[in-house]
Amino acid sequence: MSLDKLKRHVCEANKALERNGLITLTWGNVSGIDRSKNLVVIKPSGVTYADLKPSDMVVLDLSSGKKIGGKYRPSSDAPTHLILYRAFPDIGGITHAHSIYASMFAQACISIPALGTTHADIFHGEVPITRPLTKREVEDGYEVNTGKVIVERFKKLDTVAVPGVLVANHGPFTWGQSAQDSVHNSIALEAVAKMAYGTLIINPKVKPLPDYLLDKHFFRKHGPNAYYGQKKNQ
């Protein structure tokens, strides 16, 4: 993919945050990566979504983190995105939003349990919560350390099977094969967070899905034996 095309895709993905009600004001950002060129494209800091143009996107070098293109400063969350791209080589796009229901779970420092089959269609298990950052981690490299606690939380988790996380006291991050795919997973995360919130109010004693039902719904959409939807060559 050309750099100009990646800028267009990332710009459109950022605008999709607003269209889908995932952001308030400018509280959110999407990035995408070109692994072949080692380049990350991300939303500029504080620019309203309605005003965004592909030419406004900021280009960063993955290895150094230095800005190599764009007239604006990158999103303040750019260091977090860079940490995740370096640690998770299979991801191609990242979304960070402060969507209401997912952020409520993050602020409560509670993971989102897999209570129903809708959740299982996207996430193979709970959406995990990170540990809170320490005072020192906040004061010394806050955004970098946000990325590091996510990586720490996923030491024994599969980023493909669980394409999102809640950062304690903060909000959700999701990822996917592309910038658009990461937004898709953010939309899904907010939906399952809202359903979990309501379910726990109705029945605080509800138990997570049994593994056999969790597996059935996840693997009918994901993996070599998936049968949901149409074949890609049709």
Task: Give a description of the structure.
The chain is of the alpha+beta class and 234 residues long. The protein has one domain: Class II aldolase/adducin N-terminal domain (L-fuculose-1-phosphate Aldolase). It has 8 helices and 7 strands. The protein has a 7-stranded antiparallel β-sheet with strand order 4-3-2-1-5-7-6, with helices on both faces. A hairpin with a 5-residue loop joins strand 3 and strand 4. The protein is globular, with a radius of gyration of 17 Å.
Number of helices: 8
Query: Strand count, sense and closure of the main sheet?
Result: 7 strands, antiparallel
Average pLDDT over all residues: 95
Q: What's the alpha carbon Rg, rounded to whole Å?
A: 17 Å
Strand content: 5-15%
CATH architecture: 3-Layer(aba) Sandwich
For this structure, what is the CATH class? Alpha Beta
Point out poorly predicted stretches. none
Tell me the quaternary state.
Answer: single chain
CATH topology: L-fuculose-1-phosphate Aldolase
Q: How would you name the CATH homologous superfamily?
A: Class II aldolase/adducin N-terminal domain
Give the tally of β-strands.
7
Number of domains: 1
Q: Strand order, biggest sheet?
A: 4-3-2-1-5-7-6
